[in-house]
Write a structure and sequence with these properties.
The complex is a heterodimer. By secondary structure, chain A is of the alpha/beta class. Chain A is 43% helix and 9% strand. In chain B, 52% of the residues lie in helices and 13% in strands. Chain B has helices at 4-15, 28-32, 51-57, 108-137, 145-161, 173-182, 186-220, 227-238, and strands at residues 25-26, 35-39, 44-48, 63-67, 72-73, 78-79, 86-90, 96-101. In chain B, the strands form 3 sheets. A 3-stranded antiparallel beta sheet of chain B has the order 3-2-4. A 3-stranded mixed beta sheet of chain B has the order 5-8-7. Chain B has a two-stranded antiparallel sheet with strand order 1-6. The chains are: A alpha/beta, B alpha+beta.
Chain lengths: 362, 244
């Protein structure tokens, strides 16, 4: 049996259907997005492909956890800068200008000296990054740190002279994107209604995504997932957050890997990581499910924005909406269909050795 | 020599693989704005709205590329997918081109080659159109602006490489002008210029690598049934991979 750590959902399921159970599993991508390689960290849902959850991405065991978000950011920045210094590497931060990467960069600026930043950090960005948050760029980034064009990221990712860090996994902590489609034509307040009163509404929404979806099957699968959660999933928002948190966690950690020019040299948590993929952040998320968002869509990631504001006092940024910022980085590039657990990539459709015939979609 | 019926039958067989599913009718006026791919005996194989689409497929064995600009084309209307039914005959002493229907196609192999290259040209047009759009969208259309960006970049690189902090003799007028406008140091100004230019350049590089890659893939492909999947792959790289 061979296992994957990444697969191209669009090529294998949306555009293809040769994998047993693939036709029904395709519904997942019609509901959420064509381009996410879902893998259930809880092992509740069996998908049609054999996969391996990386050891550093396993779901931590839940317990009461009282650290604040800002405290965790500070500690993480210090841990990473010390790791860089002790291993003689530079930190390379993929900065999109969005809330997540601004949070991560803020934590470095806040906790490291100017000299530490100058000697140990380089920021990858584009003109889009600058436009996304011009104040932060002109007032802090260009003055404090060396900048390189993000388009060179394939050469930095896996280069052992650097620890490559991105702001990925933050969306999964806060549950952002999963909910936006649900409230496209509904009141935002529906997200906070009790889950047990909204089951019909969720089912209708799943059906509306595509007439070929087996909505009942998909809903039962999601319900099984949420019923197994170690915390109370009592609102629509938390329902979608939990699906995102458990099934998309590894997807976002690994989705940049296919574009690396040094794939075989990537060492997870040594020269590649995401800022938000630690157990502390995850425990914070599981312990603060009522704090992700307030009454309006603009309040998404308000805690992260508050953290940034406390550093740079930029009132304007507090109102910044969540906008997808990675679009251009992934376009116009060849992407392999799979990466296996030995870091071998392939442009071929996976064969039977990768099939999970005991999946929930046959 | 294939008969008219044989041509129609074989074309119908091939038509399931056509990339251009909504083939437009080209009038004389439209042809006057096109580039085209022709054979040695002046059969028109394909039309392209980009010269690069035709040039990519031209070779001395099979076809040369020539364009209709500046010539008057006599009244004709033809479906773009079937333009290989036309031959043209240019009178050396006049600017007038006569095009006429000519179904003298020797064999199925010849017809296959004509249809294949006709569709390849259409596919290359789609690729080049996308590249063109991406580049235009991400560059300035102000006169000389791109040249100015390049000049600024060269200045800025020199400033950073030589650690210049003051532009005493106005040798770096663009960079120091930018510094003055933003009230920042010369070094900061240079850094900003470099990163912005390299970011732009990185984007252009991606469009160029993509253009070369797909042009080569299309040129080398001899199986008409593969053209649609090439097209889908191209669309995927440009659109789907951005959906996250």
């Amino acid at each position: 049996m061979k296992r994957l750590i990444f697969y191209s959902s669009y090529d294998i399921f949306v555009n293809g259907s040769g994998v047993p159970g693939g036709k029904k599993f395709k519904s997942f991508f019609k509901i959420f997005s064509k381009n996410i390689n879902v893998m259930d960290r809880t092992n509740t849902i069996q998908i049609p492909l054999n996969y391996k959850i990386l050891p550093n991405l396993k779901l931590p065991e839940f317990f009461e956890f009282k650290k604040e978000f800002g405290e965790i950011c500070d500690a993480r920045a210090l841990q990473l800068i010390n790791q860089a210094k002790s291993t003689n590497r530079k930190i390379c931060i993929m900065y999109s200008g969005g809330i997540d990467s601004t949070t991560l960069l803020t934590s470095f600026f806040k906790n490291c000296t100017d000299k530490e930043i100058k000697d140990n950090v380089v920021v990858l960005l584009t003109n889009d990054s600058i436009r996304e948050n011009p104040n932060f760029y002109y007032n802090y980034i260009i003055k404090k740190v060396d900048c390189v064009s993000s388009y060179k990221f394939p050469y930095y990712l896996g280069n052992d002279k650097f620890i490559f860090i991105s702001g990925e996994n933050a969306d999964q902590l806060f549950g952002s994107q999963a909910t936006s489609a649900f409230v496209l034509d509904k009141p935002f307040s529906n997200l906070f209604k009790p889950l047990n009163t909204m089951e019909g509404s969720i089912l209708d929404w799943i059906k509306s995504r595509d007439s070929n979806i087996d909505a009942e099957l998909m809903y039962l699968i999601f319900k099984r997932l949420s019923d197994m959660a170690p915390i109370k999933i009592d609102t629509v928002y938390k329902f979608f957050w939990w699906i995102n948190f458990t099934m998309k966690w590894q997807a976002v950690y690994t989705r940049i890997l296919p574009f690396s020019k040094n794939l075989k040299d990537i060492k997870f948590e040594e020269n590649y990581t995401t800022f938000f993929a630690t157990d502390d952040f995850q425990l914070w998320s599981m312990n603060n499910t009522d704090n992700f968002i307030k009454e309006t869509a603009n309040s998404a990631k308000w805690i992260a924005k508050q953290y940034i504001y406390e550093y740079n006092k930029d009132q304007e940024y507090l109102k910044k909406p969540k906008v997808g910022s990675l679009t251009n980085m992934f376009r116009r590039k060849q992407m392999p269909l799979t990466i296996d657990e030995n870091m071998n990539f392939s442009f071929e459709y996976p064969n039977e050795q990768y099939y999970n015939l005991n999946n929930d979609f046959i | 020599m294939l008969s008219a019926i044989e041509i129609d039958e074989y074309y119908l067989e091939l038509s399931q693989h056509l990339v251009n599913k909504d083939s437009t009718i080209l009038s004389s006026k439209a042809l006057g704005n096109c580039y085209c791919l022709i054979t040695d005996d002046f059969r028109i194989v394909a039309t392209g709205f980009y010269l690069d689409s035709c040039k990519a497929l031209a070779n001395f064995n099979f076809s040369t590329q020539q364009f209709f600009f500046g010539f008057e084309v006599k009244d004709i209307q033809i479906e773009r997918n079937k333009i290989w039914l036309l031959k043209f005959d240019r009178n050396e002493n006049s600017k007038c081109i006569n095009v006429s229907k000519n179904s003298n196609i020797e064999s199925k192999e010849e017809l296959y080659t004509l249809v294949l290259n006709n569709q390849k040209c259409f596919l290359l047009d789609n690729i080049n159109r996308k590249v063109d759009f991406l580049r235009k969208y991400n560059t300035s259309d102000l006169c000389y602006q791109e040249l100015i960006y390049k000049t600024k970049y060269v200045e800025a690189k020199e400033i950073l490489e030589n650690n210049i902090t003051e532009d005493v003799f106005m040798n770096y007028s663009y960079t120091s002008g930018y510094a003055e406008l933003l009230n920042i140091s010369l070094q900061e100004s240079a850094k900003q210029i470099v990163i912005q230019y390299e970011s732009q350049n990185g984007f252009m590089l991606e469009t160029e690598n993509m253009r070369i890659r797909y042009t080569n893939i299309v040129r080398k492909e001899n199986d008409i049934s593969k053209l649609n999947s090439i097209h889908q792959e191209f669309l995927k790289e440009n659109d789907i991979l951005g959906l996250i």
